[in-house]
Design a protein that fits this description.
It comes from Nocardiopsis mangrovi. Residues 117-325 form the O-methyltransferase C-terminal domain. With 357 residues, the chain is of the alpha/beta class. It has 3 domains: 2-101, Arc Repressor Mutant, subunit A (Orthogonal Bundle); 109-157, no CATH class; 158-342, Rossmann fold. Helices cover 46% and strands 15% of the residues. The strands form 3 sheets. The protein has a 7-stranded mixed sheet with strand order 5-4-3-6-7-11-10, with helices on both faces. The longest helix has 19 residues, at 2-20.
Length: 357
Amino acid sequence: MADDAEREALSEQLERLRSMLDLLTPWAMAAALGLRLPQAIADGAECADDLARAVGADAGGITRLLRYLALRGLVTEPEPRRFRLTRLGELLREDHPADAVRHLRPDSAQWRINLAWAGLPEAVRTGRAGYRIVHGRTFWADIEADPGFAESFSSLVSMWSDGWIPALAAAWPWHDARHVVDLGGGAGDVLISLLGTHPHLRGTLLDLPEAVGLARPALAAAGLSGRCAAVEGSFFDPLPEGGDVYLLAHCLHNWPDDACAAILRRCAEAVGDTARLLLAELFAPEDGGGGDAFGVSNDLTMFNVFGSGERTESRHRELLAGAGLEVRSITPFAGRHLIECAAPGGPPARSAAPPGR
């Protein structure tokens, strides 16, 4: 009996390992979306032969593919070789309001990031970003070279940011601020939220030309063109003047330590003795423990895509000190931390609430 129990336990463990190695589901979804099969089904072509004609593919291959996706709960097969989308599968329609499909297609930024996981073994061995190993150039070089990729990544970042950007607008006493310079501000999501929540603020967005090209129409659509400028540039170069708050929101974890040191030196130049720098970042655990599932997976993703990773609070303090900046306050928000910094002898930490409240 003991041997039978041991064999059963071993079989369960092996099955669990096999499930961890499953690459079939993402590739099956990529194949279906690349052929636009979910949309073809939604448009009325349910029979495998009709679907094959609609998308220009092999009917036998479509049948096998959709039967696998039925196992994953994305379609049903109510009659032999006739398929319909499930409620979950409806999310793969191109006209679905959730617009999830744009981040799942084989031409999306998310899929290109996914492909970079093939470089993880070499990344772990060498410390080099797996993205560059697989694609032949850095992630940021791809952003600069391909406007479509830049737009897809901007949309992906907006989706990731939905939860924490509104919290950022409430996490710090912005009532005392006057002009926020958002460094690496992307398509403007952060400034649109900040300026929309705090009508007294003005803003400047700094980013590469591809991002600025997306930010300007977004700012205009939000009615903020008169209060916010979008400026082309890099945070490795001298930064725009005139801000009393400089903001780096989820930027440093995209860069290894030497690049972060260079960015923070530019920030120190810009804030001088009168302005402040705010960093919005995740903190890795100080004790070397794994942390929560999101933090651990995000840390490995940053490593594989950018050759960087999430940092502890103490490591952030070390990098800031190396650039001549002191931490004034640290505020938790939405699973992240907002670090307020200034030059030695510069402005003190701001109060937590507007006067009189």
